[in-house]
Amino acid sequence: MEQLVESLTIDLEQERKDILKKYRRLLRTAKPFLKDNDAKLIKKAFYTSVDAHKDMRRRSGEPYIYHPLAVAQIVVEEIGLGTTGIVAALLHDVVEDTDMRIEDIERLFGKKVAKIIDGLTKISGRFEYGTSQQAENFRKMLLTLSDDVRVILVKLADRLHNMRTLDSMPRDKQLKIASETIFIYAPLAHRLGLYSIKSELEELYLKYTEPQEYRAIARKLRETKGIRDRFIAKFMEPIAQDLESAGLNFILKGRPKSIYSIWNKMRKQNKPFEEIYDLFAIRIVLESTAENDREKAICWQAYSIVTDHYKPNPDRLKDFLSTPRANGYQSLHSTVMSKSGQWVEVQIRTTRMDEIAEKGYAAHWKYKGNDTKVRGNIEQWITQVRETLENGFGDKTAAIEFLDEFRSNLFNEEVFVFTPKGELKVLQSGSTALDFAFDIHSEVGAHCMAAKVGGILVPISYVLNNGDQIEIITSSKQKPNEDWLRIVVTSKARARIKDFLKEDNRRHETDGRQMVEKKLKVLGIDLNAEVTNQLRAFFECKTAADFFYRIGKGYIHLDELKRFKKDKEAKERKVSDNNAAANAAQAPASDGKTLTKYLKHIHGDRADSDTLLIGDDMDKIDYKLAQCCNPIAGDDVFGFVTINEGIKIHRTTCPNAAELMSKHVNRIIKAKWESGKEEAFLAGLYLSGTDRVGLVNDVTRIISNELHINMRGLTIDTKDGVFKGDIKLYVQDTMHLDMLINKLEEVEGVYNVQRFDTNLNAK
Questions:
Q1: Contacts from 377-384 at CB under 8 Å and sequence distance 24+?
Q2: 715: Cβ–Cβ under 8 A, 6 or more apart, which residues?
Q3: Cα 760 from Cα 756, distance rounded (Å)
Q4: Is the pLDDT of residue 147 over 80?
Q5: In the list 38, 69, 189, 233, which could disulfide-bond 198, CB 3.0-4.6 Å?
Q6: Residue in 15, 62, 96, 636 annotated catalytic
Q7: Separation between Cα atoms, residue 574 and residue 572, nearest integer Å
Q8: Is 78 marked active-site?
Q9: Where does the signal sequence lie (predicted)?
Q10: Nearest-10 crossing angle of helices 150-164, 111-123
Q11: Is the confidence at residue 396, as pLDDT, over 50?
Q12: Among this protein's residues, is 96 annotated catalytic?
């Protein structure tokens, strides 16, 4: 958390003026929405927060009150919350960081604000500990969402400001906070319709985890801005003329795609910036502030005008007007071909829809009050969240699975289907007939054997389409099995199936234990904890419960216990009393905290004693270079303590880094390369350009003759005068690799040279 800062050089008077300036700006922004005594309540919250945080400063040295003021500004200006949200934002840290209690908040500001502050306090710092604890804490955070969605909205504003001010944090903290943000908070913002905030969180994540690539893309976007602007102006000219002739008031927006989305496409498609063509989208915002039939009609009218001039791609038309997303997002999306042969994404919406698209859930109150279909959709989703959470999870694996499933579900679209009685059901896109059955009722799902869609019999694995009317066929003899988990996609169905399977497994486990105990008695062996562990190891089962379950199911025959007895007796005869004493100084590898203590012990008073030195610590600690990112000397790296394979060294830009840092923070350790160690590291380079005679000779000459680098493999493919290829080679460090890249970029015909890290060890 933030710390107290003592300094004699702080200009307290200037800070006081800045604080009041920020407060007045907050009031000006909120003024159009304030009623009755709202301003007095905000003033009271402001001075309460100022007093509570009066001696506190952020790591940057700024007064701590700057932070709650900034969060409150985001809450009202960018999310659109009212007085309660502003007050909660101003007070969101006072209970955690000061002597104030929830009871004090309730007495001063009422139950509603106290409840939000209580929720925010419970989820503060929620991701500081280990894997299963993190998942459990995330579950608690989401439970507060189902109490009052403003808890999450204020928390998102809090996270956004922390990301905006991340410069003052040390590098390891930046990586950890950025990883949590992309893993949890950006998907939440997406699900709640806060697309502007979601995009900024993604951009800031990239800025701190891939700073060089972020700056490179930003620079190229600036350099190509003039070309884009001219293209957009030319593209929009005939559309604007026809919109005006039709008497429609509108605003045209030509927005570039976010740096994060461009970077994501470059990475997924393995293409340089120059080969990513859909760098921007056109948005037509039509003037209309009330939801009515005309609102949809003018959107379709504008679509007709666009397609009069440009040919649409029929596969890329998305109608979110008739079937809005659960968070209320409405828009008409189409992709059309420009006169120059370039695909252009066009989004058509009204001013009301545009504000909802930017501010999400909170913007609905401005237009429709509390009695809204959208609120029903959001609350239906929140109800589904609570149902999933209340199923709980007992072991660590289940906790992590929950976190993964929930996170992936945040980005999913919906499918709209009907019951035989015509009741509309909204499920996750990709849902099957079996998902539908479990959505109706757990017992219906458990006994589902088939379904009818439009009167036609279909299997339980049938994937639902929009408009399907589904009738579930059940049988009392049917029951869930492991294969069902591969059929369903919804969290609710998966949770119910797992519950049924767990109960079935427990029954078989109990039966198996009783059977083993009786058989061992006949063989003269008592079943105790030691024997149970020996049985588990002998039959190669992960757990004792798994062993007894296998016996109960008949997968392991009871007669096999005779073989176990013979093996046990043979081992006991070979037991020697000269077993080596356990090495008390062995390097622990169970968690990052323990390992850090061990590193400090062996490194002594060195400044970086808590850091794993790659090379120097080779003899003392078991570690390997991760094959998912293949780090080389000079890369920014960290260590990850695995369960059975020692420590894996990953690049901070590894595709798995965000997930590891978010879900397993207690198993992360600092690591760096020992200077002066000479070692060869496997690296990969992707090349592309125009083909010519002698190109391969020039490339291999630089690698082998000039830089004396050993190659492991070289692949070049040419088509229509263009070549693409990859080289696998051994380099000393990143400087060595950069030198090679610079040399190769000078070769005639070579236009692009990029490092790649995956599949280096493939034959």
A1: 377/324, 377/326, 377/327, 377/328, 377/426, 378/149, 378/192, 378/326, 378/327, 378/328, 380/326, 380/426, 381/191, 381/326, 381/327, 382/145, 382/146, 382/149, 383/146, 384/491, 384/492
A2: 725, 726, 727
A3: 8
A4: no
A5: 189
A6: 96
A7: 5
A8: no
A9: none
A10: 50
A11: no
A12: yes
Average pLDDT, the chain: 81
Token pair of 78 as six digits: 């960018």
Query: How does strand 722-731 pair with strand 681-690?
Result: antiparallel
- pLDDT for 53-88, tens place per residue? 988 988 888 999 999 999 999 999 988 888 999 999
More confidently predicted of 404 and 543:
543
Active-site pick, 97, 345, 401, 679: 97
Q: DSSP state, 365?
A: H
Distance CA 722, CA 183 (A): 38
Reported as a single tens digit per residue, the pLDDT across 550-600 is: 888 888 888 888 888 888 777 766 553 333 323 333 444 455 666 666 676
Q: Is 723 helix (H, G, I), strand (E, B) or coil?
A: strand
State pLDDT tens for residues 415-458. Answer: 878 888 877 787 888 899 999 999 999 999 999 999 999 889 99
C-alpha separations of 528 from 468, 532, 544, 569 in Å:
56, 6, 11, 16
Domain with CATH 3.10.20.30 in the chain: 376-498
Domain with CATH 3.30.70.260 in the chain: 681-756
Distance of alpha carbon 265 from the chain centroid:
17
User: Distance between CA 227 and CA 98 in Å, rounded?
Assistant: 54
For residue 556, the model assigns a pLDDT of 87
In this structure, whether the domain defined by 218-368 belongs to CATH 3.30.460.10 is answered with yes
Residues of the chain with CATH 3.30.460.10: 218-368
pLDDT for 110 beyond 70: yes
Q: From residue 260, how far is each of 101, 193, 652, 763 by CA, in Å? A: 41, 18, 17, 33
* Predicted local distance difference test score (pLDDT) of residue 670: 87
The token pair at 480 is: 């869930």
Average pLDDT over residues 86-94: 93
* Amino acid letter, 363: A
How do residues 594-647 score in pLDDT, each as one tens digit?
666 667 666 656 666 678 888 765 556 778 888 888 899 889 999 888 877 778
Q: How far apart are CA 597 and CA 586, in angstroms?
A: 12
Q: Which fold has domain 681-756?
A: Alpha-Beta Plaits (3.30.70)
| Cβ–Cβ < 8 Å for 256, 284 | no
User: Tokens at residue 741, please?
Assistant: 């890249």
Of the candidates 756, 752, 745, the residue with the CA atom closest to the CA atom of residue 698: 745
Token pair belonging to 232: 């957009």
Q: Is 201 a residue whose pLDDT tops 90?
A: yes
Could you tell me the CA-to-CA distances from 529 to 33, 327, 495, 715 in Å, in that order? 67, 53, 31, 57
The one-letter code for the residue type at 203 is E
Question: Residue 752's CB: how many other CB atoms inside 10 A?
Answer: 16
CA distances to 20, 494, 688 from 438, rounded to whole Å, are: 55, 9, 51
Among the listed residues 380, 320, 376, the one whose alpha carbon sits nearest the alpha carbon of residue 353: 320
Q: Please state which CATH number belongs to domain 12-205.
A: 1.10.3210.10
Tokens 């999933």 -> residue: 388
Q: In sequence order, what DSSP letters do the residues of 566-634 get, joined into one string? A: HHHHHHHHH--TTPPPP-TTPPP-S-HHHHHHHHHHHHTT-TTTTEEEETTTTTTS-EEE-TTT---TT
Comparing CA positions, the residue from 279, 268, 278, 277 lying closest to residue 756 is 268
pLDDT at 671 over 80: yes
Fold of 376-498: Ubiquitin-like (UB roll) (3.10.20)
Residues forming a β-bridge with 688? 724, 752
